[in-house]
Amino acid sequence: MRHLLNPLDFSAEEIDDLLALARDIEGNLPGYSHVCDGKKLATLFYEPSTRTRLSFEAAMLNLGGSVLGFASATSSSAAKGESVADTIRMISCYADICAMRHPKEGAAYVAAQKASIPVINAGDGGHQHPTQTLTDLMTICSLQGRLDNLTIGLCGDLKFGRTVHSLINAMVRYPGVKFILISPEELRIPDSIREDVLEANNIPFEEVGSLDDAIGSLDILYMTRVQKERFFNEEDYIRLKDCYILDKKKMKLAKKNMYVLHPLPRVNEISVEVDDDPRAAYFKQAQYGVYVRMALIMTLLEVKKPC
Q: What is the Cα–Cα distance from 243 to 23, expressed in whole angstroms?
């Protein structure tokens, strides 16, 4: 039995296989409509989510399975003080696989230790978000035709953004990748990512403060919102939340084949006027998330491709 708690739980070769399966699903969605008949997915979301939770549910329903779970801690026995360990033991009696989001880092690891079903980390605090990373990889590969030899700009909240941390961890395994880290000084990438991942793997990177100066050299621009829920001080959030806003003027500085990704939800860091630009790929990215999660569910449940 396998879990997915961290992007590095799968080798680069296994990720390539998973993305190949996701692409096959994209091209033949009806053919996969019964491969998980009788299987149940439990969605344990202790933290609010729209895209991740609904894409997991859509993925399982597309595969012919069913879904049970809760969308907030207040609607579960966690409100009564039940531990994650006890909850996952109980859920293991009801479901075949589980997707869990939790505000505390490491909660998914605790669940995996106690579960008798595969556990998928759907985001734990500011730590990891591996299924978003798989979605990002599929999006990048589909748009650029490769995952190597790319210059990737990461913009906004790089300190608390778990999607950014997960993506860096995954992309350092591909040759020729360079990162441009665009953020205010207060929201720079944590030392653990800078030193233990980028520097330790000899990955070229720059830390800059200006999106305008960096955008022209990028193949991918990965925008993130400044997350109010990660701040202890509301004054700091208000001061930093509008630091980087992507608009048409900035897009004119970018390459014709530079694509914009965003894990969503956005607040105002991407102007709605950018939505009509053919390089705006964030809604397509959300669709890819369904195919990736279908492929992941099949892989962890060891379900075979339809004949």
A: 36
Helix residue spans in 40-83 (DSSP H): 51-62
How many beta carbons lie within 10 A of that of residue 108, not counting itself?
32
Please name which of 269, 168, 194 lies closest in space to residue 227, comparing C-alpha atoms.
Answer: 269
Report residue 233: phi and psi, to 5°. Answer: -120, 115
Tell me the per-residue pLDDT of 92-151, one tens digit each, with 9 for 90 and over: 999 999 999 998 888 899 999 999 999 999 988 766 789 999 999 999 999 999 999 999
Alpha-carbon dihedral sign for residues 104, 208, 246, 164: negative
What pLDDT was estimated at residue 126? 62
**Percent of the chain clearing pLDDT 90 (strictly above):** 69
Contact 223, 260 (CB under 8 A): yes
Are 218 and 208 contacting, i.e. CB atoms less than 8 angstroms apart?
Answer: no
Calculate the average pLDDT of the chain. Answer: 90
The DSSP symbol for 188 reads P
Of 97, 25, 22, 35, nearest to 64 by C-alpha is 35
- CA 291 to chain centroid, in Å, comes to 13
Q: Is 16 left (phi over 0), alpha (psi -120 to 50) or beta?
A: alpha
3 state SS of 269: coil
CA–CA dist 92, 89 (Å, integer): 5
Active site residues: 51-52, 80, 101, 129
